[in-house]
Amino acid sequence: MATLISKHSSSFAAEMGLKLTHNILRVKNPSELIQFYQNNFGMEHIEISTPPLPYKVNIVGYTKNYDANFNEASNILHPPTLLEFHYDDSSTTPSSFVNCGASQVYWKIGITLHDVDYARKFLQSKRVHVGEASQFEDIGYVCHLKDPNNFCIELLQHDFEQKFKAKTNTSDKQLPKDKFPLGYPCCIGQITLQANDIDKTQRFYQDLLGMKLLSIQELPMFGFTLYFFAWTHENPPKSDIKDATINREWLWKRPYTTIEIRHFHSSRQIPPFRDLKQNEIGFEGIRIMCNDLNMFIGKMKADSIPFEESNGTYGKEIIIRDPDNVPIYVSQNKSER
Fold this sequence. Notes:
Elements: H1 2-16, E1 19-26, H2 30-41, E2 44-46, E3 56-61, E4 82-87, E5 97-98, E6 106-113, H3 116-125, E7 134-136, E8 140-146, E9 152-157, H4 161-168, E10 187-195, H5 198-208, E11 212-219, E12 224-230, H6 247-252, E13 258-264, E14 281-290, H7 293-302, E15 308-312, E16 315-321, E17 327-332
Parallel strand pairs: 1-4, 5-14, 6-9, 10-13, 14-17
Antiparallel strand pairs: 1-14, 2-3, 3-4, 6-10, 7-8, 8-9, 11-12, 12-13, 15-16, 16-17
Helix pairs in contact: 1-5
InterPro entries: Glyas_Bleomycin-R_OHBP_Dase, Glyas_Fos-R_dOase_dom, VOC_core
Organism: Rotaria magnacalcarata
Protein name: VOC domain-containing protein
């Protein structure tokens, strides 16, 4: 039954043109954050016009995506997810940091790129503190840093450490390009959430929203498993989504954003998402867009999924919640309005 539901939901997702478009963060001093992401990561500040709101909105991110050869990718693939910053004057007071951290419902964004060591050296030259880079098991070559508001960023290399070193010793080595601050094009590859009940979470993202489960990465030594979901027509090279030999490096090269879910095997409980109070900063949810918001609402009603209606960054929207209470803001694609 779950497979049938998933196939039906995937068809609905395609009909609706569902896209993972924004990671929503309430911030303080947005100007500092915008400069940080522009100067260090080559993101663009995207001007938008919003309806009257009790907060200001700034959008930053990558407006183009690139394939594994650093050429602009086909428009068939969804563009990477953007960062949506919300700010109001109360955020300038000393404020607590909510929903964010390695033991919270929202952990980080992952920025995928060709050469992590080159990126580290560049960021360190800009006096950005970056942790040591290392090959983490058979997952990837990674390092971590924080932005000026303390949000966590992971740098994740396209290739495992040994494979990358082998590539650099060949004549077709990819050289850095001046037009990219980190030497190579980057992508917001992951939004990492943490879940308490993986069965309910998988049903929500896969069976209700029609996302494709691209990879399951088990780490029993560390007591957790990672699950990666996306709206895409692509399939991993190997049909075994637990494969570590090819699929994982393939996944890190995707020019679009996945939702990464970390689930701990023990009884360890992740505090559910809670709505931010006026003087707090932190993770506020994710935004998806569809071709027809009224049709999407109809499906939620048919599936008895509760939702709230509101007016947000792109006008009329509804809010549904995942099993850990994470808000999913659903807006209509701008071109379909």
